[in-house]
Design brief:
Blueprint: H1 16-34, H2 41-48, H3 52-59, H4 62-85, H5 100-112, H6 115-127, H7 136-154, H8 161-181, H9 188-200
Helix pairs in contact: 1-2, 1-4, 1-6, 4-5, 5-9, 6-8, 7-8, 8-9
DNA-binding region: 40-59
Protein name: TetR family transcriptional regulator
GO molecular function, one term: transcription cis-regulatory region binding
């Protein structure tokens, strides 16, 4: 029976920013597999070749690590979305040149390329419904921001932009859950296209 090689803690020192990014990526992977409550600081440290105190030196507590992971992934996804749409990030929701349908199509296509990240957010978002969860406030703020941004894109296009924004978010989240549960039978992009036509062709 093969066993995994022991983790080494004598790896070359990395610059602080690179080490922090390594920790965030390892934590992302483990949370996607186990959820936040199943996350072990020892496993994160082992995966990075660090001791637990050495790892916490870069990220603080377990709770602060979770929020840092979410902020990091949101930042990476926003940059990728801006690149896909060919627009500067700071102009995506403000210059009136991108429609809500275009943004949603780009988001869905981006998410279809990274099921592990989508699973991470789906698991944490469900867990964070408990008021005591360390990401409860984060997801509450994130949901409000998303609805505000989507509603701004729908302004002047429909009578109730906020209602459309809420319907879009609900549809996207629901389809993603179906896709994550049965990826062999559900294609996220193909499932989104007819849903988008019903939402936007009014």
């Amino acid at each position: 029976m093969q066993t995994s090689p022991p983790f080494r803690r004598d790896r070359a020192r990395l610059p602080a920013a690179e080490r922090r990014r390594q920790i965030l990526e390892m934590t992302t992977k483990l949370i996607a597999e186990r959820g936040f409550w199943g996350l072990s600081m020892q496993d994160v440290a082992d995966g990075c070749g660090l001791t637990v105190p050495g790892m916490l030196h870069h990220v603080g507590s377990k709770d602060s690590l979770l929020v840092a992971v979410l902020e990091y992934r949101d930042e990476q996804d926003s940059l990728s979305l801006a690149e896909k749409l060919g627009r500067p990030l700071h102009q995506l929701f403000s210059d009136g040149r991108i429609s809500l349908a275009e943004v949603c199509d780009a988001v869905v296509r981006r998410n279809a390329e990274q099921p592990e990240i989508v699973r991470l957010f789906a698991v944490l978002e469900a867990e964070s419904l408990a008021p005591g969860h360390p990401a409860h406030a984060y997801f509450k703020t994130r949901q409000r921001r998303t609805l505000d941004e989507f509603a701004a894109l729908a302004e002047g296009v429909v009578d109730d932009p906020r209602e459309l924004a809420a319907q879009v978010v609900a549809m996207m989240d629901g389809l993603q859950i179906q896709w994550l549960r049965e990826p062999e039978t559900v294609d996220l992009v193909s499932a989104w296209q007819p849903a988008a036509r019903r939402l936007f062709e009014r």
